[in-house]
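Posted in: Protein Modeling Q&A

I'm a second-year student putting together a small comparison for a lab meeting, and my supervisor asked me to include a predicted structure for DUF5668 domain-containing protein. I've never done this before, so apologies if this is the wrong subforum. The sequence is pasted below exactly as I got it from our records. If anyone can share the C-alpha coordinate output, I'd also love a short note on what stands out.
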Amino acid sequence: MRRCERLGRQRVGSYSFIAIIVGLLVGIATVLGQGVLPGNWNSLANSGTVWLIPAFFIGGLGTTRRRAMAGAAISLIGMVAGYYGYAKFVQHVPHSLYYIAVWSAAAVVGGVIFGLGGNLWRRERGGWHMAGSGLLGGLFVTEGLHILTHAGYGHMRAVGWTELAVGFVWILVLERSWPARFLSLAAMLPVVALGMIGYGLLNAVTS
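Accepted answer (user: helix_wrangler)
Welcome! Here is the predicted structure, written out as C-alpha coordinates:
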Protein backbone atom coordinates (compact mmCIF):
# COMPACT_ATOMS: atom_id res chain seq x y z
CA MET A 1 0.00 0.00 0.00
CA ARG A 2 2.75 2.43 0.98
CA ARG A 3 4.73 1.52 -2.12
CA CYS A 4 1.70 2.35 -4.32
CA GLU A 5 1.34 5.68 -2.52
CA ARG A 6 5.03 6.49 -3.10
CA LEU A 7 4.73 5.59 -6.79
CA GLY A 8 1.63 7.75 -7.05
CA ARG A 9 3.43 10.71 -5.49
CA GLN A 10 6.41 10.21 -7.81
CA ARG A 11 4.14 10.20 -10.85
CA VAL A 12 2.37 13.34 -9.68
CA GLY A 13 5.73 14.98 -9.04
CA SER A 14 7.03 14.02 -12.50
CA TYR A 15 3.83 15.25 -14.13
CA SER A 16 4.03 18.59 -12.32
CA PHE A 17 7.72 18.92 -13.21
CA ILE A 18 6.98 18.30 -16.90
CA ALA A 19 4.14 20.83 -16.76
CA ILE A 20 6.26 23.60 -15.25
CA ILE A 21 9.22 22.97 -17.59
CA VAL A 22 6.97 23.03 -20.66
CA GLY A 23 5.42 26.23 -19.35
CA LEU A 24 8.75 27.98 -18.76
CA LEU A 25 10.04 27.00 -22.20
CA VAL A 26 6.87 28.19 -23.96
CA GLY A 27 6.95 31.47 -22.04
CA ILE A 28 10.57 32.12 -23.06
CA ALA A 29 9.84 31.06 -26.65
CA THR A 30 7.02 33.62 -26.70
CA VAL A 31 9.43 36.45 -25.95
CA LEU A 32 11.90 35.25 -28.56
CA GLY A 33 9.17 34.61 -31.14
CA GLN A 34 8.04 38.21 -31.03
CA GLY A 35 11.36 39.22 -32.48
CA VAL A 36 11.32 36.57 -35.20
CA LEU A 37 7.84 36.56 -36.74
CA PRO A 38 7.32 39.37 -39.28
CA GLY A 39 4.81 42.21 -39.03
CA ASN A 40 1.38 41.44 -37.62
CA TRP A 41 2.20 37.73 -37.45
CA ASN A 42 4.28 38.31 -34.32
CA SER A 43 0.95 38.66 -32.49
CA LEU A 44 0.72 34.85 -32.69
CA ALA A 45 3.81 34.57 -30.51
CA ASN A 46 2.07 36.65 -27.84
CA SER A 47 -1.31 34.97 -28.16
CA GLY A 48 -3.01 33.43 -25.15
CA THR A 49 -4.67 31.07 -27.61
CA VAL A 50 -1.32 29.60 -28.61
CA TRP A 51 -0.41 29.17 -24.93
CA LEU A 52 -3.53 27.11 -24.36
CA ILE A 53 -2.47 24.44 -26.89
CA PRO A 54 0.27 22.93 -24.68
CA ALA A 55 -1.99 23.35 -21.64
CA PHE A 56 -4.68 21.32 -23.43
CA PHE A 57 -2.30 18.45 -24.18
CA ILE A 58 -0.76 18.60 -20.70
CA GLY A 59 -4.32 18.09 -19.47
CA GLY A 60 -4.58 15.10 -21.77
CA LEU A 61 -1.62 13.51 -19.96
CA GLY A 62 -3.30 13.80 -16.57
CA THR A 63 -4.53 10.48 -15.19
CA THR A 64 -7.47 12.13 -13.42
CA ARG A 65 -9.50 15.23 -14.17
CA ARG A 66 -8.20 16.97 -11.06
CA ARG A 67 -4.58 16.31 -12.01
CA ALA A 68 -5.27 17.40 -15.57
CA MET A 69 -6.68 20.74 -14.44
CA ALA A 70 -3.84 21.29 -11.96
CA GLY A 71 -1.17 20.31 -14.49
CA ALA A 72 -2.53 22.63 -17.16
CA ALA A 73 -2.76 25.50 -14.67
CA ILE A 74 0.84 24.85 -13.54
CA SER A 75 2.03 24.90 -17.16
CA LEU A 76 0.26 28.21 -17.84
CA ILE A 77 1.64 29.77 -14.66
CA GLY A 78 5.04 28.58 -15.86
CA MET A 79 4.43 30.37 -19.17
CA VAL A 80 3.66 33.60 -17.34
CA ALA A 81 6.79 33.16 -15.20
CA GLY A 82 8.95 32.30 -18.22
CA TYR A 83 7.66 35.22 -20.26
CA TYR A 84 7.96 37.93 -17.62
CA GLY A 85 11.04 36.41 -15.98
CA TYR A 86 13.00 36.31 -19.25
CA ALA A 87 11.85 39.81 -20.17
CA LYS A 88 12.93 41.21 -16.81
CA PHE A 89 16.14 39.35 -15.97
CA VAL A 90 17.54 38.77 -19.47
CA GLN A 91 16.16 41.64 -21.56
CA HIS A 92 15.85 44.02 -18.57
CA VAL A 93 12.38 45.12 -19.66
CA PRO A 94 10.15 46.11 -16.71
CA HIS A 95 6.54 44.97 -16.54
CA SER A 96 3.58 46.01 -14.42
CA LEU A 97 2.77 43.79 -11.45
CA TYR A 98 -0.89 44.39 -12.24
CA TYR A 99 -0.62 42.65 -15.61
CA ILE A 100 1.43 39.82 -14.12
CA ALA A 101 -1.34 39.29 -11.55
CA VAL A 102 -4.08 39.45 -14.21
CA TRP A 103 -2.38 36.92 -16.47
CA SER A 104 -1.55 34.66 -13.53
CA ALA A 105 -5.23 34.61 -12.57
CA ALA A 106 -6.16 33.98 -16.21
CA ALA A 107 -3.64 31.10 -16.23
CA VAL A 108 -5.44 29.39 -13.37
CA VAL A 109 -8.86 29.80 -15.02
CA GLY A 110 -7.55 28.74 -18.44
CA GLY A 111 -5.73 25.79 -16.92
CA VAL A 112 -8.85 24.47 -15.22
CA ILE A 113 -10.94 24.78 -18.39
CA PHE A 114 -8.44 23.54 -20.96
CA GLY A 115 -6.86 20.95 -18.70
CA LEU A 116 -10.31 19.43 -18.29
CA GLY A 117 -10.92 19.75 -22.04
CA GLY A 118 -7.69 17.95 -22.86
CA ASN A 119 -8.48 15.22 -20.37
CA LEU A 120 -11.96 14.69 -21.84
CA TRP A 121 -10.53 14.52 -25.35
CA ARG A 122 -7.81 12.01 -24.40
CA ARG A 123 -9.58 9.77 -21.91
CA GLU A 124 -13.31 9.89 -22.66
CA ARG A 125 -15.46 8.62 -25.50
CA GLY A 126 -18.63 9.86 -27.14
CA GLY A 127 -20.00 13.30 -26.38
CA TRP A 128 -17.45 14.28 -23.73
CA HIS A 129 -14.58 13.37 -26.04
CA MET A 130 -15.99 15.52 -28.84
CA ALA A 131 -16.63 18.36 -26.40
CA GLY A 132 -12.89 18.39 -25.70
CA SER A 133 -12.13 18.62 -29.42
CA GLY A 134 -14.71 21.38 -29.84
CA LEU A 135 -13.09 23.33 -27.03
CA LEU A 136 -9.68 23.50 -28.72
CA GLY A 137 -11.14 24.20 -32.16
CA GLY A 138 -13.51 26.80 -30.75
CA LEU A 139 -10.60 28.55 -29.06
CA PHE A 140 -9.03 29.46 -32.40
CA VAL A 141 -12.36 30.31 -34.04
CA THR A 142 -13.11 32.65 -31.14
CA GLU A 143 -9.82 34.53 -31.40
CA GLY A 144 -10.16 34.72 -35.17
CA LEU A 145 -13.65 36.24 -34.85
CA HIS A 146 -12.43 38.58 -32.13
CA ILE A 147 -9.72 39.92 -34.43
CA LEU A 148 -12.05 40.21 -37.44
CA THR A 149 -14.80 42.02 -35.50
CA HIS A 150 -12.58 44.33 -33.43
CA ALA A 151 -12.50 47.84 -34.84
CA GLY A 152 -8.84 48.35 -33.93
CA TYR A 153 -7.57 45.17 -35.56
CA GLY A 154 -8.27 45.95 -39.21
CA HIS A 155 -4.57 45.58 -40.04
CA MET A 156 -4.60 42.01 -38.66
CA ARG A 157 -7.36 40.54 -40.82
CA ALA A 158 -5.02 37.97 -42.40
CA VAL A 159 -4.15 36.70 -38.91
CA GLY A 160 -7.84 36.55 -37.99
CA TRP A 161 -8.79 34.53 -41.07
CA THR A 162 -5.84 32.19 -40.49
CA GLU A 163 -6.87 31.51 -36.88
CA LEU A 164 -10.44 30.92 -38.02
CA ALA A 165 -9.21 28.29 -40.49
CA VAL A 166 -6.89 26.70 -37.91
CA GLY A 167 -9.86 26.21 -35.57
CA PHE A 168 -11.59 24.02 -38.15
CA VAL A 169 -8.36 22.20 -38.98
CA TRP A 170 -8.01 21.20 -35.33
CA ILE A 171 -11.36 19.42 -35.55
CA LEU A 172 -10.15 17.50 -38.61
CA VAL A 173 -6.98 16.49 -36.77
CA LEU A 174 -8.46 15.60 -33.39
CA GLU A 175 -11.37 13.51 -34.67
CA ARG A 176 -11.20 10.40 -36.82
CA SER A 177 -14.65 10.25 -38.46
CA TRP A 178 -16.90 12.75 -40.20
CA PRO A 179 -19.89 12.22 -37.84
CA ALA A 180 -17.59 12.95 -34.89
CA ARG A 181 -16.22 16.02 -36.64
CA PHE A 182 -19.71 17.41 -37.25
CA LEU A 183 -20.65 16.85 -33.61
CA SER A 184 -17.43 18.55 -32.51
CA LEU A 185 -18.29 21.50 -34.73
CA ALA A 186 -21.65 21.70 -32.96
CA ALA A 187 -19.83 21.62 -29.61
CA MET A 188 -17.80 24.63 -30.77
CA LEU A 189 -20.85 26.91 -30.84
CA PRO A 190 -21.21 27.45 -27.06
CA VAL A 191 -17.41 27.64 -26.79
CA VAL A 192 -17.31 30.51 -29.28
CA ALA A 193 -20.24 32.31 -27.63
CA LEU A 194 -18.68 32.09 -24.16
CA GLY A 195 -15.24 32.89 -25.58
CA MET A 196 -16.41 36.15 -27.10
CA ILE A 197 -17.88 37.14 -23.72
CA GLY A 198 -14.56 36.19 -22.12
CA TYR A 199 -12.65 38.43 -24.53
CA GLY A 200 -14.93 41.29 -23.62
CA LEU A 201 -14.20 40.82 -19.92
CA LEU A 202 -10.47 40.43 -20.53
CA ASN A 203 -10.37 43.62 -22.58
CA ALA A 204 -12.17 45.41 -19.73
CA VAL A 205 -9.54 44.46 -17.13
CA THR A 206 -6.47 44.95 -19.36
CA SER A 207 -7.37 48.19 -21.17
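A couple of things worth pointing out for your meeting: The helical segments are 2-34, 48-61, 65-89, 97-123, 127-149, 157-174, 178-206. Residues 124-207 form one domain.
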